[in-house]
Write a structure and sequence with these properties.
Length: 285
């Protein structure tokens, strides 16, 4: 029974279905906070889900070939076991993405060009003689992740609803980027040895673990101030619980060796935040 449960968890995590649902949650949260008709959201939600599956599938499959055998952890062994599944789901997701694309507003279709190029460049080698990826450039990885996730989950919903002219877009985008930045730092700590072997400098490798956690503390305080200023109390309370919970989880991350802590718990903070905001608004409305 235990093996069955672990197999289900592995399937959800390493087929990238879980992170795709987290991406939907972050995008849906923006639609929810803007209080617009959900019927307008489904094309973008489907595209975000599909694109996340495709990008993460490419990333994992390419990473398997680039990482030295000696550095293959249980995580990569599991990904290798699900390689065929990943390819099949990515192919299906690509078809769903193309389908949903044609239901989007024209401006949203245009704005998709930037994150698409950055996402492909992040996972597909194309730079220099050694064919490096964008993520192989020193220090850029975490900023790319935070920027693209904020762009997709905040900017694109605003575009789909015709709200690109509002100043709220920029403030919400910064808030979302900081949150993604915070929950991505533990992954850089986890991948310290892999990035070192690849010759890639990251913030945790340069600052050290303790200084990185101090940075997390500062960023969390800034983020909490932002959400207090940007949202009504009914929303702030949900974000407050989300922020404090996430902060405590990040502080514990350097001592964690089980990959579930990162791919399930840390990524899951996005899904948790959406649920907390939903409950907070419904209870306090």
């Amino acid at each position: 029974m235990k093996k069955v449960g672990q197999s289900i968890i592995d399937f959800l995590l390493y087929s990238h279905l879980f992170i795709a649902f987290c991406a939907i949650a972050m995008t849906a949260q923006t639609f929810f906070l803007l209080d617009y008709d959900w019927q307008l959201a489904w094309p973008l939600l489907l595209l975000v889900f599909s694109a996340t599956l495709v990008v993460y599938a490419l990333h994992r499959l390419i990473s398997l070939d680039k990482i030295k055998k000696s550095l293959h952890t249980q995580r990569y062994k599991t990904i290798r076991r699900y390689a065929l599944h990943i390819k099949v789901y990515a192919a299906v997701a690509m078809l769903l993405g193309v389908f949903s694309f044609f239901y989007l507003q024209r401006v949203t279709q245009f704005l998709l060009i930037l994150p698409a190029l950055l996402s492909v460049g992040y996972v597909v080698p194309f730079l220099g003689g050694q064919k490096k990826r964008l993520r192989d450039i020193n220090f850029i990885k975490i900023f790319l992740i935070a920027g693209v996730w904020a762009y997709v989950t905040v900017c694109l919903p605003f575009a789909e609803l015709g709200l690109l002219h509002t100043s709220k877009l920029w403030y919400w985008g910064v808030e979302r980027a900081i949150f993604i930045f915070i929950i991505t730092l533990p992954f850089d700590i986890r991948d310290w040895e892999i990035d070192k072997a690849a010759g890639v400098q990251t913030l945790p490798a340069t600052l050290g673990v303790q200084a990185t956690l101090i940075l997390v503390t500062i960023l969390t305080i800034v983020w909490l101030i932002l959400v207090f200023l940007l949202y009504p109390l009914s929303i702030f309370y949900g974000l407050l619980v989300s922020g404090l919970t996430t902060y405590l989880l990040v502080l514990r991350s350097p001592k964690q060796s089980n990959d579930y802590y990162f791919t399930a718990v840390m990524d899951g903070t996005m899904l948790i935040q959406f649920l907390l905001v939903l409950v907070s608004v419904l209870v306090l409305k």
